[in-house]
Amino acid sequence: MMFEQQMRIDMRKKEEKRSSSSSSPKGTTSNIEEDRLEIVDLSGMSLDSLPNPSLNLATICKLDLSNNNLQSIPESLAARLLHVVVFDIHSNQLKKLPNSIGCLSKLKVLNVSGNLLRFLPKTIENCRLLEELNANFNQLTMLPDNIGFELTNLKKISVNSNKLVFLPHSLTYLTLLRILDARLNNLRCLPDDLENLINLEVLNVSQNFQYLQSLPYSIGLLISLVVLDVSYNKITTLPDSMGCLKKLQKLKVEGNPLISPPVEVVEQNLQAIKEYLIAKMNAGHRSPAHKKKSWLGKLVKYGTFNSRLSGSREEREGFIMPEYRSIDSLASPRYMGMFSPRRLFSPRTYFMTR
């Protein structure tokens, strides 16, 4: 059967394209281009390869090649997807992506999960409009070093179920990032400068098992963090700074050999954990022999942590989760406002009291 006859092409135009066309004068060049864009669905067709089609690839805004048996994507095909915004090739047998994927200058969503990829091509850094990257269930051992420097529009990164040993430091420059899912890898550590991820809401680094043994202190500066999952690792101590995660609503720490906080505190609720960590932090900073040479020491010097947690009695009690399970609660440390990257690097007088 001819390739063109195999294709199931959804000729429906994107709703947003149609609405924008109706609100603009007809006959303009931009409207003509928008009207020609198509959604091509070739998913679940047991395709082993993609012969060169006569279809004009430049008219495709979404291409779905998922759930096939593809072992490669032709370089020539990717190079001609000039207007593709969504490229879905999950659940195939791909061992590598074409270098020409860097030509997808309008790409916003890339789904390559469920393949056999060991690395992502460096040229992916040219997809500068990319907002969502899904590379779950592959064999990735590393991500491109400069991915965070170049793909500054990324809002979601899902790389769970791979073989990653570390996350590149450049990820800390993704100030728009909201979700980072790196569970089920071989992570030894997390990048130090997490405070730059000012919009990060969900961080999941669970199930790195014996590899992940500690968390960086900067995790306490994730000012937008709502969900944190560090379960099933080898973490013995939670950083004191985590007591100041103002927006944190869900914390999962089960499956770790925790010493600090002790089990009796963890079994209570999230608020109890925060109170323990802040008390420990303040006690440590009052000790003459205890000096921090990091950013944390600078904050302590100006009294950032010299306070008690506020909130009603109900807020302090929170919700008790038995059997060392997930901990859900709300917390609002009074001085969380001081934990801002902008204030962190401001002149010393910024923290001075009148």
TrEMBL record:
Output the Gene Ontology cellular-component terms.
Answer: cytoplasm
- Tell me yes or no: is Kinase among this UniProt entry's keywords: no
Is Nucleotide-binding a UniProt keyword of this protein? no
Instruction: Map out region (Disordered) in residue numbers.
Output: 1-31
Question: Which keywords accompany this UniProt record?
Answer: Leucine-rich repeat, Repeat
Taxonomic superkingdom: Eukaryota
Which species is listed as the source?
Tripterygium wilfordii
Q: Which InterPro entries match?
A: Leu-rich_rpt, Leu-rich_rpt_typical-subtyp, LRR_dom_sf, LRR_domain-containing
Name of the protein: Plant intracellular Ras-group-related LRR protein 6-like
Q: Which SUPFAM superfamilies match?
A: L domain-like (SSF52058)
Compositional bias (Basic and acidic residues) at which positions?
A: 7-19
